[in-house]
Hints:
Elements (H helix, E strand, L loop, with lengths): L1 E8 L3 H13 L5 E5 L9 H4 L20 E5 L3 E5 L4 E4 L4 E9 L3 E3 L8 E2 L3 H13 L2 E5 L3 H12 L3 E5 L12 H13 L2 E4 L4 E7 L2 E6 L4 E4 L1 E4 L3 E3 L2 H5 L8 E2 L5 E4 L2 E3 L4 E5 L4 E3 L4 H15 L11 E6 L2 E7 L6 E8 L3 E8 L2 E8 L5 H9 L6 H4 L6
Parallel strand pairs: 1-2, 1-6, 2-3, 6-19, 8-15, 9-10, 9-15, 10-11, 17-20
Antiparallel strand pairs: 4-5, 5-6, 7-16, 12-13, 13-14, 18-19, 20-21, 22-23, 23-26, 24-25, 25-26
Helix pairs in contact: 1-7
Amino acid sequence: MRRYRYLIVGGGMAADAAVRGIRELDRDGPVGLVSAEPHPPYNRPPLSKGLWKGAPFERVWRRTEELGVELHLGRTVRHLDLRHKQATDDRGEVYAFDRVLLATGGTPVRLGADGAVYFRTLDDYQTLRRLADQRERFVVVGGGFIGSEIAAALAQLGRRVTMLFLEDGVGARLFPAGLARFLNDYYRERGVEVLPNQAVARVEPTGERFEVQTQSGLRFEADGVVAGLGTRPNTELAASAGLPVEDGILVDESLRAGHPDVFAAGDVTRFFNPALGKRIRVEHEDNANTQGQVAGRNLAGADERYTHLPFFYSDLFDLGYEAVGEVDARLSVVEDWKEPYREGVVYYLDQGRVRGVLLWNVWGQVDAARELIAEPGPQDPVRLRGRLPR
């Protein structure tokens, strides 16, 4: 049996950030990290952004192993015994701990098709990159965060790309209707075949290629199929240990997960955000890094509240954005464009309060957006125009 003062279950960015948080307060305490991934922790954003534009591959590594942590890779914790403070992995290895962090992330929603790439991991990137270097024709299923980035990345390599998604426009769940429709045409101008309002009925391998059929009867042949359909939080381990779960692991303001020696961080957590006045779950880099670090410090004895309102960002060809808070197209919106759909700010409101801000090709305003969201309101929609520089 291996014994650790701190055991981290998971090997993503939140796990690495937690190790760093621990080491801020405890330089020598034994730390063990158990991850289903075969690789040590790495940065995920470059997988759909910088690596496609020539960024050095070496930049993905977070070098967690240099922090005095024992890495147990290619292993999945299957059982968590909180009474005896032990975790058991899929090979029967047992890890004893004083405190444990659950950073178990999420699992991609699947099409049920063999050979489709569900773009989430380093292995997914390497698989798709090999295909893209050798093949020509790709179908991307999904017009959300991952789908829009991967379609742009493949198109910029000169590949023939078809996008299929259920909504009316690219990013329609996030963006105002006019912006989403603009993006349809914007992608088409860059060579992407954009087909909104299409549900995939089946994907079948045909030799080294695939046949994709939609419910409306459209058929496509492709050398590769990429699916970006969202993720589901990996809560099974927490639930089986009797910890509170509700579309994520429920944590308190100190990121404890229903037990004084159990914490959670990253994509899997549902936490209370005081600026929004509600529980949220966030699957983006800023939350993983910031929340993971706070969780690590609290594992090591600090008692800090996690009050951070995360942001996320994306690059779509030569457009880019940063988004803070609830960026949800179902909310009321106030659009403040310097140049329509090229540069501007979109405010998302609910019951007179700003709940989210989209900074479209506008930079350096994330903190100001957070301050605006934290204001109690009510906000006059007319006076929001010009509130943030654009």
